[in-house]
């Protein structure tokens, strides 16, 4: 499951950069290569907030205007949590399947949308996203306390990869 989630985070980054490259007319792979110091910093800190200075510098080097980067990067450090959302959704589906819970597609779609809204309130600190999502896991998906605990443990185990996806996508 961890390998699948890692692959999904790579897909999210590639889609974001390919789309941005198509819109801006810039080489998405060159921009992505420029962002690798921010990705590496996020892997080491697991904190979007702690990575802001590196992400800001690398975004400007990638060609984002300083005025735009200076306003967007700090804002996105706490509201753009695509990597975290991918991890939480994938892990919750895995736990539902493993525990024999029915997977209701309309419920999961609603969960993903609510997760997107609640991620805006998640702090840019290690584990902030899963702690913010814990209420949704219980109220919407019917997770028990041990299931939420398993979600927290698996999420924290690879939190740095979701954070790296988040900050790389901020640019």
Helices and strands in order:
Elements lengths: L1 H23 L3 H7 L1 H10 L6 H10 L4 H14 L2 H17 L6 H14 L9 H12 L5 H13 L1 H12 L1
Helix pairs in contact: 1-2, 1-6, 1-10, 3-4, 3-10, 4-5, 6-8, 6-9, 6-10, 7-8, 8-9
Helix and strand succession? HHHHHHHHHH
What is the number of helices? 10
The SS-based structural class is mainly alpha
Distance between the termini: 28 Å
How much β-strand is present in the residues?
A: under 5%
Major β-sheet profile: none
Principal-axes shape call: elongated
Q: Low-confidence stretches at least 5 residues in length (pLDDT < 50)?
A: none
Quote the average pLDDT: 91
Q: Quick one: how many beta strands? A: 0
Helix content estimate: over 70%
**Count of domain modules:** 2
Can you offer a commentary on this structure?
The protein is mainly α and 171 residues long. It folds into two domains: 2-80 and 162-170, no CATH class; 82-158, no CATH class. Helix content is 77%, strand content 0%. The chain has helices at residues 2-24, 28-34, 36-45, 52-61, 66-79, 82-98, 105-118, 128-139, 145-157, 159-170. Helix 6 crosses helix 8, helix 6 packs across helix 9 (145-157) and helix 7 packs antiparallel against helix 8 (128-139). The longest helix is centred in the first third of the chain and has 23 residues, at 2-24. It is elongated and about 50 Å long.
């Amino acid at each position: 499951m961890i390998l699948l989630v890692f692959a999904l985070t790579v897909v999210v980054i590639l889609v974001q950069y390919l789309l941005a490259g198509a819109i801006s007319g810039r080489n998405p792979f060159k921009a992505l290569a420029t962002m690798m110091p921010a990705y590496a910093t996020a892997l080491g800190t697991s904190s979007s907030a702690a990575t802001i200075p590196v992400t800001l510098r690398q975004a400007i080097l990638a060609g984002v205007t300083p005025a735009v980067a200076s306003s967007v990067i700090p804002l996105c450090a706490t509201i753009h949590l695509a990597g975290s959302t991918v991890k939480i959704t994938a892990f919750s589906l895995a736990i539902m399947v493993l525990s024999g819970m029915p997977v209701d597609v309309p419920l999961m779609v609603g969960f993903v949308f609510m997760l997107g809204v609640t991620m805006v309130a998640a702090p840019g600190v290690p584990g902030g996203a899963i702690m913010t999502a814990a209420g949704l896991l219980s109220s919407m998906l019917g997770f028990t306390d041990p299931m939420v605990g398993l979600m927290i443990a698996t999420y924290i185990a690879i939190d740095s990869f979701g954070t790296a996806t988040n900050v790389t996508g901020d640019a």
